[in-house]
Amino acid sequence: MAGLELDDVTKVYGDENAGVVAVEDVSVEVPDGDFLVLVGPSGCGKSTTLRMIAGLEAVTDGEVRLGDRTINEVSAQDRDIAMVFQSYALYPHKTVRANMAFGLEESTELSETEIDETVEETAALMGIDELLDRKPGELSGGQQQRVALGRAIVRDPDAFLMDEPLSNLDAKLRAEMRTELQHLQEQLGVTTVYVTHDQTEAMTMGDRIAVLNQGELQQVGTPLECYHEPNNLFVAGFIGEPSMNFFDGRLDGAWVATDAFDYPLGPATSDDLEDGSELVLGIRPEDIRVSDRRTGDRGFEAGVSVVEPMGNENIIHLRFDGATAVEEFIATTEGVPTVSGGDRVTVEFPEEAIHLFDAESGTAVKNRRLAFTGAVDGMLP
Ligand code: ADP
């Protein structure tokens, strides 16, 4: 087993000077035994990054290190890294046992008996020991994915790379497999990089997540750090469902003036900012307090357009006077909904919950602090 490190890794497809820059100067470290989730929208460079680690794609610039050696020039077969894909890529005519044994037969000197023992141990670990003599066509999607994982595990690699391995499964099975994979990864203690475009998967699975956009790394942190202390507008908007609400504004003395409201900042915040600067004020839906009473100078009147009762929470679509449909914002409340479409309400944005971003660069200039959320050491209370 070994840790993994990317040091200023860049990938340009095609001509080095005029090609597509798929990944740019990405540096990230995955300590030995850790689980890193690489997350970002489609086309942001996740698969390319993973394929460079696997040795399936050449690195244009920078270094990939596994343990204490640089592996840029090491061929994929010699990297001792196992990869699991969205498509299970099992051999259809071989049994589960033969599928799992194949890699070992090719890459190790183990005897047939030793291979058989290893396959059976791993199959038991994965709960597929009853299926060893079946062919992939006789298995469900979830079972096939388990075999694909088992085939990777049986090789006892230095690192696992997983490229959206659960996306072909239905929602319930996906949620189950997420938990199972996490347990398994902890139990095996193998350094793992897991790629997904799904922020929920990233939030629930990773020790740490690395958020990528347009080939550039935006933030590496625990899921809760990325959620509560986003580095920039992109991370703030990408992590969290429903998304953070954003309002364009400008600093006017100790106030953020937007089209819909003027928001007073405490001196500690406004003193650090340049008067007149263009800002984006952000607030998460669950931090907005919705009531029928005026609540001081951080409460503003708004109209309710739609309420979606989800059972555990209500998604309330709101609009300030004069705003268009695209300028709607969202608040979430728990329990039985107390407002409905057409109501006039007061929405309060508590100061400790707001985020401020520089409108031009997108950089966060004020975040709510993790401490305010009651979360300790990245764990929910
Ligand atoms: P993701 O996995 O995040 O969806 P990819 O790593 O597949 O993103 O792609 C990143 C960027 O690189 C995209 O703009 C994509 O079009 C481009 N790209 C990927 N593979 C190739 C290739 N073989 N040749 C040229 N461009 C590619």
From TrEMBL:
How the protein assembles, per its UniProt entry? Answer: The complex is composed of two ATP-binding proteins (XacJ and XacK), two transmembrane proteins (XacH and XacI) and a solute-binding protein (XacG).
The ABC transporter domain covers which part of the protein? 4-239
Which organism is the protein's source?
Natrinema soli
Q: What is the lineage of its organism?
A: Archaea, Methanobacteriati, Methanobacteriota, Stenosarchaea group, Halobacteria
Q: What does this protein do?
A: Part of the ABC transporter complex XacGHIJK involved in the uptake of xylose and arabinose. Responsible for energy coupling to the transport system.
Q: What does UniProt give as GO cellular component?
A: plasma membrane; transmembrane transporter complex
The protein depicted here goes by the name ABC-type D-xylose/L-arabinose transporter
Give UniProt keywords alphabetically: ATP-binding, Cell membrane, Membrane, Nucleotide-binding, Translocase, Transport
The similarity annotation says:
Belongs to the ABC transporter superfamily. Carbohydrate uptake transporter-1 (CUT1) (TC 3.A.1.1) family.
